[in-house]
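**Reference record**
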Amino acid sequence: MLKILIAEDDCELRQLFSHVLTKHGYTVKGVSNGQQGLDAIENDYYDLIISDIMMPVLDGYEFVRQLRYAGNNTPVLMITAKDAFDDMRQGFLSGTDDYMVKPINVNEMVLRVGALLRRAQMINDRRQVIGGTTLECDSLTVIADGVSSVLPQKEFMLLYKMAAYPGKIFTRQQLMDEIWGYDSESDTHTVDVHIGRLRDRFRDSKDFKIITIRGVGYKVVKL
């Protein structure tokens, strides 16, 4: 049975989330701040984390940041009362996978939890499927309409990363850090060049499109 950790300092909200997710077949543990979340993860394995931002002791941003720094890639759904774009951007930059703003529609939350878990499984399998297109990580191969194409490594990893989270915005710096590495001497213009090549390769795709978010970065959307 899949296990979910909820880090939320509002007791009533934490209990509501736990009740709904338990009804949908998940095993749930609740904690009231990020530090308790880190302690729980040290002692057990969780398939997904739901975290508030504004919590005592250790807030959601720092909770997720410490997880990622430690190499923990468990999917995180961040839930908060903050709805400003800068707050959302900070959440994604800390390593969050998805974001919901209070008041929460619990039915939507269940759908998002399921989607995140499916994506995580595909990443573990080292393959992504978006519509009729399959990306095979081990061979850097994209299969579409029965035709296989081997991509240069950086192009493939860019597409693979964005295809894992359709609709999620990735900043140029975030893609630069994750694909080229934090110590790379290249600048973010390199990302633009590789994105341009990917667009040329897949301009006729019936399954996805790469969208530019002016002044921010890029996202892959399903067609």
About this structure: The helical segments are 11-23, 34-43, 60-69, 85-94, 106-124, 153-163, 172-180, 189-201.
